[in-house]
UniProtKB/TrEMBL annotation:
GO terms for cellular component: plasma membrane. Pfam families: BPD_transp_2. GO terms for molecular function: branched-chain amino acid transmembrane transporter activity. This is Branched-chain amino acid ABC transporter permease. It is a multi-pass membrane protein.
């Protein structure tokens, strides 16, 4: 089986699960919704850390920034003063139409995505002068500082956060129904994850894939070959920011509450999870982050349910074993074990298929 056919089958199976999952596991819709967000996390981090070799620890900044931008846009579209609404913390009577609600939500997601792209471009001009651990620590500082600054900004609720969502006063359908709400946001999360996967699959098959891999291998030589490294680094970070912002807007509306440190900018949880998932599956590949996200999320949910109190130890052990013994990740280990299945020629044997682009495995 060649690589292209294997890739199509894998995509079909994953999409099939996405479509029938809520009906097979109706009591776990929220957990599966979060799974798709985790897939998006891992894919966007890998665009920087895996494909290009710039290990960002601050991608969670765009998740939180998108969450807040989306929420503020929703409040403004609903016709409320942001400072008044957040200071009242939901105590004011919300009276909006269905059209206002959905217009605010989708406009909020769009504004969040575009706004975070601009933030990524601006921050990239500052931080892309750093490399290696200096870049990682610098981006980590962005996320940590953002949480503290938002927590001190009273106009957006400060440390008290923002209560969401802004529902119509009376509705005969979603958002008046809890079941309809769950399916609606599940669909949004699934679409976001699929769109992220397809976008990066296309992007890695272009010149971009070769260019960012060249930057990862040796940036000075890449520049010497005429590659505009700053342009490719900016595109990689801006694309990550775009999808992370959408994930933030969706997640904020799912949990109905936005708080700066634990919800919007959770550096010690989601910020670490996205790195761990990409490493677990195999960074620098397309399918590695997806595999890692699914496995990591399933283990996380199982340990949270059956090993409460020990869940962080279990997850820590997974990360340690991964980093010490399986640095190449699950997909990398599989390539070493069964190279012919991935189109790698062994001892002169003909390849069964070939992978396209930088990281389309």
């Amino acid at each position: 089986m060649n690589a292209e056919r294997r890739n199509l089958i894998s995509q079909g199976l994953l999409l099939a699960f996405g479509l029938i999952g809520p009906f097979l596991f109706p009591h776990y819709i929220q957990q599966i919704t979060l799974l798709w967000i985790m897939v998006l996390f891992a894919l966007t981090w890998d665009a920087m850390g895996g494909q290009m070799g710039y290990n960002s620890l601050g991608n969670i900044f765009f998740f939180g920034a998108g969450m807040y931008i989306c929420a503020v846009t929703q409040i403004m579209v609903a016709g409320y003063d942001v400072g008044e609404y957040t200071s009242a913390f939901g105590a004011i009577h919300v009276d909006i139409s269905d059209g206002q609600y959905f217009a605010g939500l989708f406009l909020g997601l769009a504004v969040a995505a575009v706004g975070c792209v601009f933030l990524a471009i601006i921050l990239g001009r500052i931080f892309f002068g750093l490399r290696g651990p200096y870049f990682a620590i610098g981006t980590l500082g962005i996320a940590l500082a953002a949480g503290e600054l938002i927590g001190a900004w009273d106009w957006v609720g400060g440390g008290s956060g923002i209560s969401l969502p802004l529902y119509p006063a009376e509705a005969d359908f979603f958002p008046g129904s809890g079941d309809d709400e769950s399916m609606f946001f599940y669909t949004l999360a699934l679409i976001a994850a699929v769109a992220t996967f397809l976008f990066y699959q296309w992007l890695y098959s272009t010149r971009f894939g070769l260019a960012v891999n060249a930057i990862r291998d040796d940036e000075e030589k890449a520049e010497g070959m005429g590659i505009h490294t700053l342009r490719y680094k900016t595109v990689a970070w801006a694309s990550s920011a775009f999808f992370m912002a959408i994930a933030g807007g969706i997640h904020g509306n799912i949990i109905h509450f936005i708080e700066p440190l634990e919800v919007a900018f959770p550096t010690v949880t989601f910020g670490i999870f996205m790195v761990a998932m990409a490493l677990l599956g195999g960074k620098g590949t397309l399918w590695g982050p997806v595999i890692g996200a699914i496995l990591f999320h399933v283990i996380k949910e199982v340990t949270w349910t059956h090993l409460l109190g020990w869940q962080w130890i279990a997850l820590g052990m997974i990360i340690i074993v991964n980093v010490v013994f399986f640095q190449q990740g699950i997909l990398g280990w599989m390539k070493e074990r069964w190279p012919e299945a991935f189109g790698v020629t062994v001892e002169g044997a003909p390849a069964q298929g070939s992978e396209t682009g930088g990281g389309s495995n």
